[in-house]
Structures are given as C-alpha cells and as structure tokens.
Amino acid sequence: MNPVAARTSCDLVVVGAGPTGLFATYYAGFRGLSVLLLDAQHEPGGQVTALYPTKAIHDVAGFPAVPGADLVRGLVAQAEAHEPRMVFGAQVVDLVRDERSGTLTLSLADGSQVDARAAVLSTGVGGLRPRTLPVGHGWHGRGVAYTVGDPTDHTDEDVVVIGGGDSALDWALQLQPVARSVTVVHRRRAFRAHAASVARAEKCGVRLLTDCELLAIHGDDSVRSVVLRDRDGSEQELPATTVVGALGLVTAPSPFAAWGLELVDRKLVVDQSMATNIPGVFAAGDATSYPGKVPLMAVGFGEAATAVNNAAVHIDPELSLFPGHSTDEEQGTTMASDPTPLAVEA
C-alpha cells in the first residue's frame, strides 16, 4: 500500500479497487502475472465500502447474505494470496499507448508513472460523492450524514432519512431495530426503492412520508428537529437527532474520452473479450457497456475473469485463454504464466 515509485512497471495494472477490481487482481495473480492495483480512494471496496458496508448483499453466489464489509475483506484476502501491489489514494490522470512497443503508460496525479503490458479498468461508475441536502449546509458532522456505517451508533436516536431510493430504505431498515424512531421522507408520491423493501419498512414500523420535502433543520450544537412541508403546503416539525441524506450520488467527469477510449452513455464500449478500442486495455464491471449488459456485482466478477484471461493472452500469445482450475493450485498444476515484467528504471 506504499506510494507508487517515480517509475514502476508490471504485467497488468488494475484501476479501481471495488469488488470487480479486487477479483480481477486475484485472477491476474492466479495467472502468474505481476499486478498493480490502483484506486483513488484510500481504502478498498468502492461503493460497497463507501455506502453500505453493513448492508447484507444477497446476490453473490454461494452467500445467502453477506455484509458488504465482510465481502470486501474476503476479496482483499483472496487477492493478497498472490502478493499483488495495492496502492490507494492513487488517481490515474492519463493513459497512453506506445504504438511501437505496445506498452501502456499510466500517469498518476502525483507525477509518478506506471508502465504495463495490459490494463483492466474497473472504475465502476467513477468518482462519487453524495448529493448534498439543500438545507444541510453547516450541519455535516453535527447530525447530518450521508452514509450509515454502524447502525448501533444511532441507538435511541430519532433518525430522519431523506430520499426514496434503495439506499434510503436499506438504511431505514438497518436503523429501525436500534433507533428510537425512523422516518423516511420522499418528495414524490411513489418510492423508487424495491417494493419489497417498502413493504418491509411499513411492516416493521418505519414511518414513510411521501409528497413531502425537507424545509429546514433546527438545533444548536447538533440537530434537534426538522421541518417538513407536504404538497399542500402544510408544515410539521419532527424530533431528529440524525438526518441522513440519501439523495443519490454525483459522479465526477470521466477522463476516458480524453484517453481515446470509445464511450456510449459515458460507459466503456467493450467486445466479448472485455477489450476496449485501445489494444491491451480491457474493462470490467459497471464502467462497461455492451448489448445485453446487466449491471450486477455477480456479472462484474465474470467480466473480471474474462478481461484478465484475455489480457494474459494479449501479454503472451503463447498462453492458453483457459486458465485451468483454481482447485489445481495446491497441486501446482495451474496454467498460470511466468512472464518477465517490463524492465523500467526507477
């Protein structure tokens, strides 16, 4: 997790340390590639770590339910089995391919550079920040929050969640068993969240207010109450210890177009091998687009394996695309390669 040297090299660089990027890092090690994982955030896990570390994820094969933080820890442990380099707080600002050698050079915001034979871009939906509450200015850290980490931090609190999507209802359901009261406020008539989540919230006692908006936050050193206004203009004041903004995320502009990568609706266009239009550059996960794409974590894991195995063949055409079975690792019979990394002076 040390900073990248002024100039370093590897067989494969993976950009983005969300679930897809972590699994790609494991697979690159399994194939015997030297791999460097880069992420602009300061810890692994991407959106899972940032937004729902305690939320149970139900659509990962083999796990009826796994908390986000546990899944990330498992993916990190899996990736570390092959001793990759993982560098966090490293923002990639440019990617250039040398037409003669085929080498990819990635430039980082701190001025360092990475030379690689191939790259897998697994940046998800890009740099994210929560959409802030219109009346939340000045209250952040004093009762206004934009994520829910440990629900027990809100034991016996009056919590008001602003938003109508899945995150709003998921957080409300996590908080309801420990909070004194939980109210979800949505400015539209119908919730965008999954209908089953809305029904569960109603059943377990979460108060759901629709056609209603947050008008003001009151308090002293911390939040004490909120003022809500419904569609008819009627106002009501509710006790509130914590106000959770769940209005969605704002994405930072992607640099992909400037790098010469083909995009559709701000997503990377890939073929069936997860290759982009730049030779040696592959992509996987939510950053990609192709006909029939299903944006699920489970799909991203498969895309990561596809991207890495095709990248391995790009690096060494003598390799088999099929990697062998992971169950053969302990017997030393995998089909991983031992390519010689690029020699670059530090």
UniProtKB/TrEMBL annotation:
Annotated positions binding FAD: 20, 39, 47, 52, 92, 128, 286, 327
UniProt-annotated stretches for the region Disordered: 324-346
GO MF term set: ferredoxin-NADP+ reductase activity; flavin adenine dinucleotide binding; NADP binding; thioredoxin-disulfide reductase (NADPH) activity
Reactions mediated catalytically: 2 reduced [2Fe-2S]-[ferredoxin] + NADP(+) + H(+) = 2 oxidized [2Fe-2S]-[ferredoxin] + NADPH; [thioredoxin]-dithiol + NADP(+) = [thioredoxin]-disulfide + NADPH + H(+)
Residues of the FAD/NAD(P)-binding domain: 11-298
Cofactor: binding comment: Binds 1 FAD per subunit.
Cofactor: FAD
EC number, as in UniProt: 1.18.1.2
Keyword annotations from UniProtKB, A to Z: FAD, Flavoprotein, NADP, Oxidoreductase
HAMAP family, alphabetized: FENR2 (MF_01685)
Family statement: Belongs to the ferredoxin--NADP reductase type 2 family.
Subunit structure comment from the entry: Homodimer.
Protein name in UniProt: Ferredoxin--NADP reductase
Organism (species): Cellulomonas soli
Gene that encodes it: trxB
